[in-house]
Amino acid sequence: MAEISEAPGTSNDASEAADKKNNNSETSNFDPKTMRKTKPGLKRLILTFTVLFSFLLGLPLLLKTIEIYRSPLPFRDIDLLSTSIESNPLLFPCKFHAIFVGFNHATSTSSTADKLGFSIIAHMQKFIGDNQDCGTCGGNNFTVSVTIDANTNCIQSQNGKITRSWQCGVLDSFKFDENLENSDEDFDEYLESVLGGQDINNGGKVYSVVVVNSDEEIRAVVGKYRHAWIRGRVLEENALEKIAEIFVKVFVNGGKEEGVIHGEFMPVGADGRIVLSFNLLNADPRDWIYDWNFQEIDEILLAPVIEALEPVANISVESQVLYHTPKSSFSYWDDKWESYLFSTKDMPFFVNSNEWHLDTSIAAGGRSKILQFVVYVPSVKECPLLLQLPDGEISMTNGFISPMWGGVMVWNPPGCLRDSESVNHLRHKISPKDLNKVFEVFMGQLRQLFGLKSASLYVGASGTYILLASNKGFTEWELDLLSRQHTCFNLLQSGTTLGSLSRLVQSLPRMIIMDEIGKQVKFSLKAANLARSNASVGNYDASSGMFHPTCKL
């Protein structure tokens, strides 16, 4: 086979010739007249810096347009508040005063009174136990002052002194009535005139127990103010235990086993307002139609109650009369009671939400708490209608409550007849006497909704105590209890809400926070701190008032 070969150097010469041809073609593309023959000078440098400066000048404006606005929040103060509330429950300082009258202490000294005070404290510690709940006087956050009335002179203990001391022999001018109930009311007012001003100027409130040794049966009564008394043949050691139980179980705990009601214990709205809505329901107006003079209830009976609860909530009242409002549950005729009965098992189905249009308030706006109080007038076909208790007995009030909703009372018209043909179809008005009974039932239901008992007796470990009622619906020591619990509940809610908000905002750096939000956070923080400060000196009303809707810091 023939081999084809190339002469040495032939390939290199050809490539050099091709490169030279390409360079000549590129050079021919530039115009010598327009081509720059010198390096860029100052003019281009100034132009470059001008563009760069314009960009830097407009950069803040650009950043401002895309900025996420965040009002500054006091995160550290919020964390300190929430941590303090969670770790240290608020314990109110309490002042107690025990007064012994008629005991053989002619040769006693102040040290004797101090020993009695320490004995009372020891008994109180047994009743308190490990209870450190918010709103109580747990631990050692209380003082006990003792006064011995020895007729010739008054012996005052050095421990826990109070501003206004007991006047020696002040009970000599009071004559007890043979009618014990009248005597209790009169003695309660008399003690208020004697003890009512204790430490009031210092913002604190003193709870007193007067023990009168006399040749009678023992009678222990808790008044409607801030004092109680034990009168009769009582040994000193037994009196010490009774005094301690009244201080802890009645004045501090309100007659309940636990110190506070956990959770949402009071029906108060987020805005600190309560709307009491009273409703008169005529089940079947074809049988009868009843109306009421509610203005009389509002002006005479409700006004003192609203005024008494003012430190706790801002209360408004509404009323209405509705027709064609049958209940949802069934009732049955009972020959023994000669009435139609419904049981406690039927109570959840009694309220007919489809027919009972009870929400009348526009002012509430969703934040206020509305409590419904219903007077149900049954139709002829189920009249009289009675509530049967689980033990088979008939309810004395013929009503029931639904927690955080309100209460219902069944009112049977006088002369309830089973024969519908003999019914008078004219309009009627509930008599003032029946209205007073209805109001008494509603007051008991309102007290239950606030977590208070309506019983007139408290049965304790050391004996039975009579509890006097107030025409305001709530005694002074009960209002103190509600103020303490209201403050605790709001502080817990405030600490939890502010703490959650603080963690949320810090976890979302691009979250918008307007000035109004920041203002409300600072306002809430200040109110919570002021409430804690007032509570630390025993100013219950002021601490509770920090969360009142009319409060202005």
UniProtKB/TrEMBL annotation:
Pathway: Glycolipid biosynthesis; glycosylphosphatidylinositol-anchor biosynthesis. It comes from the Eukaryota. The keyword Iron does not apply. One of its GO terms (biological process) is GPI anchor biosynthetic process. Keywords: Endoplasmic reticulum, Glycoprotein, GPI-anchor biosynthesis, Membrane, Transmembrane, Transmembrane helix. It is found in: Endoplasmic reticulum membrane. The keyword Transmembrane applies. It is a multi-pass membrane protein. Residues 1-36 are annotated as: Disordered. GO terms for cellular component: endoplasmic reticulum membrane. The chain crosses the membrane at residues 45-63. Belongs to the PIGS family. This is GPI transamidase component PIG-S. It comes from Ilex paraguariensis.
